């Protein structure tokens, strides 16, 4: 039986301020996965960017009502499960984007959630 990756998550409150929401909006509209390698990564980039756009929409829609690390990581979980079939390098770049989002919302550590879904990347 697989362990629950959230059993080790230490919840913490997040401080939702206008600057954070502005940065999330900027992230949503900005370029993502610019360094994704490959001969023609555009289809892969579009898939992954669409998932990141959906994640940023969920964060914008709900973080003010649910200002907690646990809630944000649960939103990440949905996206991480959606990209599990991607190749290792794509998942690595996806993880880097999630780390950017973590910095925006003020989360220092995923407490192992990213490593659980991204294979220790």
Structural class of the secondary structure composition?
mainly alpha
Head-to-tail CA distance between termini: 22 Å
What is the string of SSEs from the N terminus onward?
Answer: HHHHH
pLDDT averaged over residues: 91
Q: Count of DSSP helices?
A: 5
* Number of DSSP E strands: 0
Q: Report strand %.
A: under 5%
Helix content: 55-70%
Largest sheet: none
Gross geometry: globular
What does the radius of gyration come to?
Answer: 14 Å
Walk me through what this model shows:
The protein is mainly α and 121 residues long. Helices cover 59% and strands 0% of the residues. It contains five helices and no strands. The protein has helices at residues 18-29, 42-62, 69-82, 88-105, 113-118. Helix 1 runs antiparallel to helix 2 (42-62) and helix 2 packs parallel to helix 4 (88-105). The protein is globular and about 40 Å long. The chain starts with 17 loop residues before the first helix and ends with a helix.
Provide the descriptors you would attach to this structure in a database record:
121 residues; mainly alpha; 59% helix
């Amino acid at each position: 039986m697989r362990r629950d990756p959230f059993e080790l998550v230490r919840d913490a409150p997040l401080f939702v301020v206008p600057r954070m929401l502005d940065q999330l909006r900027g992230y949503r509209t900005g370029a993502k996965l610019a360094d994704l390698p490959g001969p023609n990564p555009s289809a892969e980039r579009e898939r992954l960017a669409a998932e990141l756009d959906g994640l940023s929409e969920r964060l914008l829609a709900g973080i003010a009502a649910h200002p907690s690390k646990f809630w944000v990581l649960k939103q990440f979980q949905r996206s991480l499960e959606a990209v599990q079939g991607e190749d290792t390098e794509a998942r690595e770049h996806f993880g880097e984007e999630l780390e950017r989002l973590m910095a925006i919302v003020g989360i220092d550590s995923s407490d192992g959630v990213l490593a659980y879904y991204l294979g220790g990347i």
